[in-house]
Amino acid sequence: MDNEMTLTFLARSENEGLARIAVTSFMAQLDPTIEELSECKTIVSEAVSNAIIHGYANNPNGIVTVYAVRYGAEISVTIKDEGCGIENIEEAREPLFTTKPELERSGMGFTIMESFSDFLQVESVIGQGTIVTFTKQIMPIQTLVT
Amino acid sequence: MNFNLTMYPNDILIVQLFGELDHHETEKVRTHISKAILQGNVKLLVWNLEHLNFMDSSGIGLVLGRMRELRAVDGETILLNPSKTMQKIFQYSGLGNCVQFASEQQVILHSEGDCQWITK
């Protein structure tokens, strides 16, 4: 492991931006492209929004933890909540599946997270919470030029 | 995030978004845009994303929700000048055919002259 960070905050929607900024700053040491950066930013945003809206059902007293590690050119980020958990993970990962259409949730969160990451793992226990982990390889700038 | 709503006389509503659009921010803009749609007779809703630095799937919910409101009047939607990452998000969500790269002026001119250009 080359570097790591942990960020803990209350499940309030205004903290979504904080989580994104923390992870993007952490990634900056890898010299990512703007696209790699904005893709990781999107994954973090989706996972943190899920924790707040679904995990804690908008109860602002919940705690969300974002943990990031860097191994060489690879970054791994874990977003954890201790909320209600996901009943059926497979179903939740289906494109367009949402339990909250009335809140205009598009049901695209997991599809976007899967598409933008190299690897995505979702672990969840009903009543105990959900842990989303993704990894992404950041291409060295030299390989992009040649 | 900041936003700007401009209504053109011939039923075109242009929404300019600035900064970052996430779940927190969509809640704030939704009512304003919905109100403009319900008050006017909007036939074309243009989301100018040129100055938007970030958007997640909350943006998809926002756009799809307004498309639903526009369905009653057969209104069209254009997603103008999104970033590469946003373009991918729109594609995954089946909104890829709403994306266009042009200036607002071009879009307005085309909609006045030839509606075929906008209708899919």
From TrEMBL, chain A:
Recorded GO MF terms: protein serine/threonine kinase activity
Gene designation: spoIIAB
E.C. numbers: 2.7.11.1
Catalysed reactions listed for this entry: L-seryl-[protein] + ATP = O-phospho-L-seryl-[protein] + ADP + H(+); L-threonyl-[protein] + ATP = O-phospho-L-threonyl-[protein] + ADP + H(+)
Organism placement in taxonomy: Bacteria, Bacillati, Bacillota, Bacilli, Bacillales
Keywords on record: ATP-binding, Kinase, Nucleotide-binding, Serine/threonine-protein kinase, Sporulation, Transferase
Function, as annotated: Binds to sigma F and blocks its ability to form an RNA polymerase holoenzyme (E-sigma F). Phosphorylates SpoIIAA on a serine residue. This phosphorylation may enable SpoIIAA to act as an anti-anti-sigma factor that counteracts SpoIIAB and thus releases sigma F from inhibition.
Protein name: Anti-sigma F factor
Keyword ATP-binding: yes
Pfam annotation, one family: HATPase_c_2
InterPro entries according to UniProt: Anti-sigma-factor_SerPK, Anti-sigma_F, HATPase_C_sf, HATPase_dom
Domain named Histidine kinase/HSP90-like ATPase: residues: 35-140
SMART domains reported for this sequence: HATPase_c
Enzyme class: transferase
Sequence similarity: Belongs to the anti-sigma-factor family.
Transmembrane segments: none
TrEMBL record, chain B:
Organism of provenance: Solibacillus merdavium
Ranges annotated as spanning the membrane: none
Domain of life: Bacteria
PROSITE patterns listed in its UniProt record: STAS
Protein name: Anti-sigma factor antagonist
Family named by the database record: Belongs to the anti-sigma-factor antagonist family.
Gene3D superfamilies: STAS domain
Domain STAS: 10-95
